Amino acid sequence: TNSRPVTPAVETHDTTRTNESTPDTARTIEPRRDNTGIIEPRQETIAQKIIRGDKRDLKFGNFKWRVLVSIHSRATGKVTALLITEDIIEERPFHHYTTEAVTWEKCDLRKYLNKDFLQKNFNDSEREQMNVTTNKNRYNAEYKIIGEGDTDDKVFLLSYEQARDYFSGNADRVATLNNNNNECRWWLRSLVDPGFVRESAALVGSDGVLGNIAGSVHSSFGIRPAIWINPK
């Protein structure tokens, strides 16, 4: 006869199809597309978000941050950004009680931010993405800001000038304690000269006002840590 053998169906299949026995690695997952290109869901990095233009509620470490400054290198595709926490994360004194002059360089709050806070709230990869920043601590005659030496910090507070320049106005500086609708004053790193002893540091008011507002370094006010990062 002229009949020919029939190949069993089990031996022929479409390699683009999957079934319950096909491993996940053989599947083709169509990535989500947006105006920045092809990005797979749940794998978008903070760097990609900043390059895209996102500025608020960016998760990094244990907190959400807002972008104050971003610098994008088109040559390398990398971004550097200055971030500050969206909220006041806690209230702490600037320094313990003392009759001696207080400086940002030697205050308790700077030591806490760059040691315990840094170790507790970021993993190794995140700490590697954080820059050591040389902060300028300039004299300001108008608001009696005391000048002092530069400091190298991974985590820091904004200076008076930064709080003035990086926000659009008073309302933009208003912050709540852990997003609980309780608007609070928050520390700046700039020390204020009250005329006879250096025991006051500048504050942002609970209404966002920036000016002749200072608090005793021994009192507890809000902290909004700031960091410069090269995110991946």
Strand neighbour order, sheet with most strands? 3-4-5-13
Query: Main sheet?
Result: 4 strands, antiparallel
Give the distance, in angstroms, between the N- and C-terminal Cα atoms. Answer: 69 Å
Provide the structure class.
Answer: alpha+beta
Low confidence ranges = 1-30
Q: H/E order of the elements? A: EEHEEEEHHEEHHEEEEE
Shape: globular
Radius of gyration: 26 Å
**Which bin fits the share of residues in helices?**
10-25%
Number of strands: 13
User: How many helices in DSSP terms?
Assistant: 5
Q: Kindly state the mean pLDDT as a whole number?
A: 83
Strand content: 25-35%
Task: Offer a concise description of the structure.
By secondary structure, this protein is an alpha+beta fold.
Question: What labels would you give this structure?
Answer:
disordered N terminus; alpha+beta; single chain; four-stranded antiparallel beta sheet; 232 residues; three-stranded antiparallel beta sheet
